Amino acid sequence: MSKRIALVGMPNTGKSTLFNRLTGAGARVGNWPGLTVELLSAKVLLGDAMLELVDLPGLHNLHGFSEDERVARHFIETQALNGILVVLNTTQLERQLALVLQLKSLGLPMLLALNMADEAQHRGIRVDTEALEQRLELPVCLISAKQGQGVAALKLRLGEWLREHPKPIQASLGVLAEDDVIEATVDELIGRNVHIPICLSPTHTDRIDHYLLHPLFGIPLFLLLMLGVFQAVYGLGTPLQDGLAWLLGEAKTLWLTPLLAGLPAWARSFLLEGLYDGVGTVMSFLPIIVVFFLAMAVVEDSGYLARAAFLMDALMSRLGLDGRAFVMQLMGFGCNVPAMMGTRVIRSQTQRIAAMMMIPFSLCSARLQVFLFFTSAVFSPRAAPWVLFSLYVMSFFLAFFTAWMMRGRTRRSVDPLLMELPPYRLPTLAALARQSFRESGHFLRQAGGFIILGVALVWFLTHFPLDASPAGPATLAGHLAGWMKPIFTPLGIDQLLSIALLFGFVAKEVVIGSLAVIYGAGGDQLASQLAQRLDWVQAYSFMLFTLVYTPCVSALATLRRESGSSRAMWASIAWSLSLAWLLSFAFYQGARALL
Ligand SMILES: Nc1nc2c(ncn2[C@@H]2O[C@H](COP(=O)(O)OP(=O)(O)OP(=O)(O)O)[C@@H](O)[C@H]2O)c(=O)[nH]1
Ligand SMILES: [Mg+2]
How many domains does the chain contain in total? Predict the structure, then answer.
């Protein structure tokens, strides 16, 4: 019979790391408290029994009430479990043992994993696990989930412990002990069983923070670092993308075209100019996506992301939010969807909604593709990175502006940010690879689903009726574009481009794919066609519009679900569409008048 246990502990103690190590799954790990906001489960064979492990969001205490804590608590209280595996950070036992004592009142079998043994050892902290075990009447294992020490022993203990508790049981909602009783017990436990050096030597974290959190230079350093990350992505990713685009182009002319020569013209056009060019052009961005997520993983897993929250907290509080909203903004650079879910760590509902309204302006990796493609097609190699940078600046500006517009509601509820800064940690290569692999997998699945469908539909619209010239005014797409003309002409966005925008509504990844189909060319050919047809003012206006107009369908669905209100979703659509139109209009008309 399958058994089930849950991983419970405070935020950032390494639950997801242990989960991944025990199950081989790929849960998201990062040096940021509150990274896991949803349940994740996986099964493993432990000895001869099947074990289901559930990774939960971090929990500060059992009175917790932010959304992610509620998720964890609800699970523990309502599901029948064979037991809970409590993960603690050994370097902070004096703060974390209280949770163990609270959890005891649930009456569930418990096993304690004292994690981060490596860091504890480094700091000279010693724990008498046997004594602690006797005193708490629980099995206790000292482990390092990241490096693997003690994990094999933990597995053995886990097996024994499960044999002792074969039946899943329901937590009983016992009365929590008084806080001061718990405090006294923790003091006693620590005093007897944990050796903490009297004076902890300043760690490398303190030394690094002395510079990185400097009151004057902190923010400029942050901007410089982000610029560095961005340059690295650009510098490393673009040549790789060019290479892949070239390969795909060669494969098409040398191999695919002759292979399909026998098919009727429309079928060839559908397969080559439709599916292959459309999907292939999107695929050529895979290397950039990988490099991008590697860079993001370094920023996140090193602990610098938490510093960003600290640095920006003062500015954000003027906007009625706190530093965490800013961090979600940064996470949104990957994809807006997990960033919106990450706002669950914010307790006030009005602030959460404000943060979720900002996130759609985060220049996500799907939009990055569109911009990389356009900037390299239309701008000179020297200008291109700066054009891209200006779009990032715009993205921040619009997010802040949105928060500022909502400040009347949020400001009343700002409480000071009490967030602990985790120590800097060197990300392991395996963790980075896993992160990047997972995100690329997501990209490939998107490409597999939406993009193929989207591209096929675009091909149909631009080639039907079959006797009309492709993407011409007589096709379905031509009619569609005709209707949208009054909206887009004042922005300098021509009819072909406006069709791509229509499809970008579903997923921004589809924009480039649709353009390939509309222009009947992929990769380099598409780039040179764009360069011929558009001047830089039109191209920039198009990019501005793409940046701002409506979040994609998945982001909207997430916004609706997380905020629990369709109003927020419609407000976000209306706000971003009008902003996009006004901005592109002002830019295009202004540039045409001045230049
Ligand atoms: N030095 C050290 N770092 C660890 C260890 N285990 C986890 N970490 C790091 O601690 C950080 C947090 O790990 P996660 O597994 O995301 O923590 P979590 O408990 O799931 O956090 P939340 O989901 O936010 O509650 C990451 O940077 C890990 O690499 C360990 O044994 N030693
Ligand atoms: Mg986690």
Answer: 2
